[in-house]
Amino acid sequence: MGSGNTNSKITPYVLACWILAAFGGLMFGYDIGISGGVSGMDDFLIKFFPLVHERKMHVQENNYCKYDDQLLQLFTSSLYLAALISSFFASKACTILGRKPTILMASAFFIAGAIFSALAEHKWMLILGRILFGIGVGFGNEAVPVFLTEIAPAHLRGAVNIMFQLFVTIGILIANLVNYATASIHPNGWRVSLGLAAVPAIVLFIGSLVITETPASLVERGKQDEGKRALLKIRGVANVDEEFSEIVYASEQAKLVKHPMKKLMKKESFPPLLIAVCLQVFQQFTGINAIMFYAPVLFQTLGFKNDASLLSAVITGLVNVASTFVSIFLVDKVGRRKLLLQACVQMLISQVAIGAILKVHLTATSSDLSTPLGAVVVVLVCTFVMSFAWSWGPMGWLIPSETFPMETRTAGFAFAVSSNMFMTFVIAQAFLSMLCFMQAYIFFFFSAWIVVMGLFVIFLLPETKGVPIDLMTERVWKHHPIWKKFFDGDDNRTIA
């Protein structure tokens, strides 16, 4: 095995590949942001959820329960059930067809979802559109992070992979801006919001025709000459022999594994699999998607008027985007663990403070939340979003994409994606009901999870900064004080 060092330079072509592929993240982020704003639009509620609208307009209604409706929550959450199931099909597509065709399929499904959603006249059309969106998200979230990880040089892998999360945050911001603009377009502003989801999907569709396939995928499918040419193209230098030899070696070992899913069940696959799944669970139990999905709804619950709540969501979206750049600049310098631990402290303080303010000033039937105090809540939400954006957001996608060996990479990442989608579904489906039942205590609920997450990072998460992905087992897992015993006396490349 070589040293793991790679020769490379950033060429305009490889930069274009990174950006175009990352539009898969923008597609995902736009949907996260758009659904919460649409759910709070009166025209949308009158057409599809009239009982929710009537409850919303009832001045004596419980402040925490205005939007507690299972079908309304299903509008948001159905996407993630579809994404959960489709991620396993996407894993097969990634392995058999390659990363590039899988990205193309993701964009095609998303375009279809945008068309169905914008033209919806009945609830079943609305839900079908969400399911098509979900299949697109499942395929995109499986293929794009793996694609970015495989074409990035080791010393820039963190920053390149985080472009996916950066574009997720940009998508959320754009969605919030669109919702703010379309809220005044009656009665079809919600159609414009949902239909514009096709725009990033079209860019991704065109981009999937321009980007190269990853060298690892080409070699994995027996196309060594094409793989060598692709590596030369993305590295921009003439000498890539050492890196290519490592890719070929990893591919040869991967071919010994006939059943990747079975291999994932073996002892030596347990550490990366557990880390991948737990990161997805923890990412959702920070409470971030509860805030991002329902930011306009949440701010209306806190007493903001409709326009003010949408504007507050735009502010949090701007913070989200700006803070993700912090992660891009720091992840390959300070490492993954330090960013995660720092964020746990900041998120914990923010959540506890929000919970305390609401417990004192917002009861079920009355509110003495003054304008200055409301502004404090927005600031606290921003500090929470800020810390998530440079830590658990991008790391949840980066770490699972870089810690599996080639033979289980797409299968293992499929578990990560499906876990993320399942937990996202749970939060999206349950949050408004949890808010109604738990009221301000919901923020203390998420705070308790943040403490658990911090302990998990301290004791179980290894540092993966700067380690080539095909040397991860030798350099990381076999040296971790807890995980190394899973490899004692075993060859992690054994046939399965």
TrEMBL record:
Q: Where in the cell is it found?
A: Membrane
PROSITE patterns linked to this entry? MFS, SUGAR_TRANSPORT_1, SUGAR_TRANSPORT_2
UniProt keyword list: Membrane, Sugar transport, Symport, Transmembrane, Transmembrane helix, Transport
Which SUPFAM superfamilies did the record assign? MFS general substrate transporter
- Keyword Membrane on entry: yes
Entry's Gene Ontology molecular function annotations = monosaccharide transmembrane transporter activity; symporter activity
Membrane-crossing ranges are 12-30, 71-90, 102-120, 126-148, 160-178, 190-211, 273-297, 309-331, 374-399, 411-432, 438-461
Output a single Gene Ontology CC term carried by this record: membrane
**Which membrane topology describes this protein?**
Multi-pass membrane protein
**Residue span, Major facilitator superfamily (MFS) profile domain:** 17-465
Q: Which family does it belong to?
A: Belongs to the major facilitator superfamily. Sugar transporter (TC 2.A.1.1) family.
**Protein name, UniProt field:** Secondary carrier transporter
Q: Which organism is it from?
A: Lithospermum erythrorhizon
